[in-house]
Every structure is written in structure tokens, then in C-alpha cells.
Design a protein that fits this description.
459 residues; alpha/beta; Rossmann fold; 6-stranded parallel beta sheet; 18 helices
């Protein structure tokens, strides 16, 4: 056997431990085993694999042979003739259920039926809702605010003018008859159409109150530059919005803060790398503790760690933002500290509304919002996934480049989200395939040149 590491496996370190990391997604249930600890002795042998020497001639000691044999049995170490050929533009595989493919997602596995590892994870997940992170159903929300007399508002909504948050504002204010405070961070790269949609929404639903916050460009420019240097892409949303607006929700004694993120945007966290049910983030703690942990995760300084786990990379993302904009999170940190000291202090609970039941399809949502409030898509955009941010294709492109080079365990986000929407019937597979051409894969999008100029850096 002329041994080599299989495609997309890489030796790296977790703190002081040697590990093997798979940069891709294994067929279910292998999606839960992306990281394998190895001994220093195994590392020395693996580093010596060149695809030419016979493993049988390596003189493995018996103790090490057991470890290497286990890696061979798991098809992590293979004969060079069995190494997988990377996908290319003229030969790649696309999932039979969704549109995920191994060109944009190198290392993505498929089962014998041609179904990708993401769809397998969704098929095998507990879809009862017990693991959905920070989710609240329509009935639960309505019941819990039915006796709210401590505030002028039942709920604060982080509002961008995109289809998801616009639908949420309408749904809660008009259908559920809740008292809504909509808040918007005037992020510099918001579509003009999204700003117009906000105005149309407020005009159509006059009972909704609205607060907008503009952070100075020099501060945002520096934070985006730093984020690009640390994380490899410059995005700051939606973390900054929590720093800006959670203290307002607290001072107004609003019971709930909802963010306009639909289920497809959290599918990796909910179903692919599922948080254990015993974890506070998954419902193992009461809602108040979950909110405190949510805020601490985003607003408190922490050690920047080697991102070899998906959850760690997410932690690094928030860590980087709050270290670049520490003053934005000062009040949040103060509220959390007081809430931990005083268990009777009431704080707004941070939730997202479970959307699969209320949405129908994306096309129906767009049609409904247009008829109800005159909501419009960004000019020339066919992609229904992200309808408020003009630099979303830049994030797609930069995430893809890092993932391709095995520099991140974050999957290119948009392809996963739109494929998840296909799986759950929010959009047809044919529509998704057509719209995916607008995502920022794999070529640099035109808006990248403007962003380079704005940030005055080479991206």
C-alpha cells in the first residue's frame, strides 16, 4: 500500500493536540466525526507518506499499527490509486435532492442514491423542533406576550428591508396583532431597494414604530478592514445590531427580541453539527440563560482559537467583531453582568421565529409582500436568498476561496442555504439552479472592486 491522506483530510493542531480535520462533509453519520485525534507518533509517519513508499516497509511498531490500521479502515489513509479526484468545472456531482455540489463544496460526499451529506443530515435529524437553536413557534410567542403590560412593545425585530425580516414585521404586526418595534442598523452596503422597502413597510403598517442607527463610516471601515484581515471576509452583520439595539430593548422592557433569520440560515447549526440537547444553546437551560449565553458569545472578549470546529469558527467571527468595536458592546456586557448577579432581573429574550410553517414558498412570500406593501426585489436580481445586502456575493466568493484552500471549516454559506430551502420546499430545485448563477461562486463578483476601493485594501 502506497499510503497517502485521502482528499480533504489535513493534519493540524487543536491547542497542543494533533488532529486530523476533514474539510468537507461526510455522509451521515460521519458529519459528526469531522475531527480525529492522533498521536505525535502517527503524525510523524503520516508526514512521511509520499505515495511512493510502501506502508508495509515503514516498520510500524505494534502500538502505532493499531492506530494507523484504524485510519485505513476509516478510509482516511488510502492507497494513492484510491485518492479522490477533485471536482472541476467539467466534472462534478450535484445532489439529486438539492443543488449542493462538490465543485463549490469540495469534499462533499454523496450516498449511493446521489443524495448529498447535507440532505442526509436533514433526513436523519430530529425534526420535532427540540434542537432548533433559539427558536420560538408562533403559538408560543403569542401566548407568552398575551399578558405583557410592562412595555409599549411585545417584540423588537431586527429589520433590514429584506424579504425575511419584512415578512416577519408584517406577520407579527398584522397577523398576530403584536406591538412591534422595528430597528435597523443602517449598514453601508444595504441595497437602496431595502431602504425603500423599509419605508413602504412602515407606511403600510403605521402601528409599527421604527428606530434606525447609523454607525460612523470611519469606525465601520476600520472594523471591516480588521475583520477581513482576521477572518478572511469583512462582514459584520448581524452581530453589530445586537450591540446597538439590545440595550434599547432592555430599557423599554420589551419581552422578546427577534432576528429576521429564517430556518435555512441556521440549518448547519441545527442539523449538520447539532448542538447537544444538554447544551444551553440547544434548550438544555431556561430561556433566560440561553439569552445570556447568546449575548456572552457575541459581546464578551475571549481567546481567539484555532478554528478546527465549526462552532469555534463561529465564535471567532463574533470575537473578532466585538474586539474591533468594543464600545458598541459595552452596554450589553453591563446588562449581562447585572443579569447574572440578579436572577430576578428581567431581560429581553432573544429568539427567532420558526419560519418553515408560516412561509409557504419564497416565491409566494415575494408575491405576497409585493401585493401587501409594494415590496420590491433589488433591480436585476433573480436570487431570492439575500435581498438586502449588496456585498453578499463577496462573502460567497471569499468563503469559497478559503474553504477551497482548507483554511476554514466554514462552508460557503449561500449554496448551503439555498440548497436547504430546496430540501424544505421553499424553492424548487429548478429555480434554485437558475438563481445560483448569481451567487459569488467561484469567480470574483464585480462589487469586489468597489469594496477594495472603499476599504483601501487588497482583498
Amino acid at each position: 500500500m502506497r499510503a497517502v491522506l485521502q482528499y480533504r483530510w489535513k493534519l493540524t493542531k487543536d491547542e497542543n493536540e494533533d488532529i486530523l480535520v476533514y474539510y468537507g462533509l461526510k455522509n451521515y453519520p460521519g458529519n459528526f466525526r469531522q475531527v480525529i485525534k492522533v498521536t505525535p507518533e502517527a503524525v510523524r509517519f503520516i508526514n512521511g507518506f509520499d505515495g511512493a513508499k510502501m506502508l508495509e516497509d515503514a516498520g510500524l511498531p505494534d502500538a502505532l499499527k493499531i492506530e494507523i490500521d484504524a485510519l485505513i479502515a476509516g478510509k482516511i489513509i488510502v492507497d494513492i490509486k484510491d485518492i479522490k479526484i477533485p471536482a472541476a468545472k467539467d466534472h462534478y456531482q450535484t445532489c439529486k435532492k438539492c443543488i449542493n455540489n462538490d465543485l463549490i463544496l469540495p469534499g462533499l460526499e454523496f450516498n449511493d442514491e446521489g443524495v448529498c451529506a447535507f440532505c442526509q443530515a436533514y433526513q436523519n435529524a430530529d425534526l420535532s423542533g427540540s434542537t432548533l437553536t433559539n427558536a420560538v413557534s408562533e403559538s408560543e410567542l403569542a401566548e407568552k406576550v398575551s399578558h405583557n403590560s410592562n412595555s409599549r412593545f411585545d417584540v423588537m425585530i431586527l429589520f433590514t428591508g429584506g424579504k425575511d425580516s419584512t415578512f416577519l414585521v408584517w406577520y407579527l404586526a398584522k397577523k398576530l396583532k403584536l406591538r412591534v418595534l422595528a430597528v435597523s442598523w443602517n449598514m453601508p452596503y444595504t441595497h437602496k431597494t431595502a431602504h425603500d422597502n423599509i419605508k413602504k413597510t412602515l407606511a403600510a403598517i403605521p402601528g409599527v414604530e421604527f428606530v434606525e442607527w447609523t454607525v460612523s463610516w470611519p469606525l465601520i471601515q476600520k472594523a471591516m478592514r480588521d475583520q477581513q484581515e482576521k477572518m478572511g471576509y469583512p462582514c459584520l452583520c448581524p452581530t453589530v445590531a445586537f450591540g446597538l439595539f439590545y440595550p434599547l430593548a432592555f430599557s423599554e422592557k420589551i419581552p422578546y427580541v427577534l432576528f429576521g433569520m429564517e430556518d435555512v440560515q441556521s440549518a448547519v447549526m441545527d442539523y449538520v453539527f447539532t448542538v447537544p440537547k444538554s447544551s444551553p444553546a440547544a434548550g438544555g437551560a431556561d430561556e433566560r440563560t440561553q439569552t445570556i449565553n447568546f449575548l456572552k458569545f457575541r459581546a464578551f472578549p475571549r481567546k481567539y482559537v484555532n478554528p478546527v470546529y465549526w462552532q469555534r469558527e463561529l465564535a471567532n467571527y463574533h470575537c473578532s467583531i466585538q474586539s474591533n468595536l468594543p464600545s458598541v458592546f459595552d452596554q450589553v456586557r453591563s446588562i449581562v453582568k447585572n443579569a447574572e448577579e440578579d436572577k430576578n432581573l428581567k431581560i429581553p429574550l432573544i429568539k427567532r421565529l420558526s419560519t418553515r410553517e408560516s412561509y409557504g414558498t419564497w416565491k409566494n412570500v415575494i408575491k405576497f409582500l409585493h401585493e401587501e406593501i409594494g415590496w420590491e426585489m433589488p433591480p436585476g436580481q433573480n436570487n431570492l436568498l439575500h435581498t438586502s445586502c449588496i456585498i453578499e456575493p463577496v462573502k460567497d466568493y471569499l468563503q469559497y476561496q478559503k474553504f477551497l484552500k482548507m483554511e476554514t471549516v466554514f462552508f460557503p454559506q449561500s449554496i448551503v442555504e439555498i440548497s436547504t430551502a430546496v430540501f424544505w420546499g421553499l424553492i424548487s430545485r429548478e429555480e434554485a439552479l437558475e438563481q445560483s448563477s448569481e451567487l459569488g461562486f467561484p469567480d470574483p463578483p464585480p462589487i469586489l472592486d468597489k469594496l477594495r476601493s472603499d476599504l483601501m485594501m487588497d482583498i
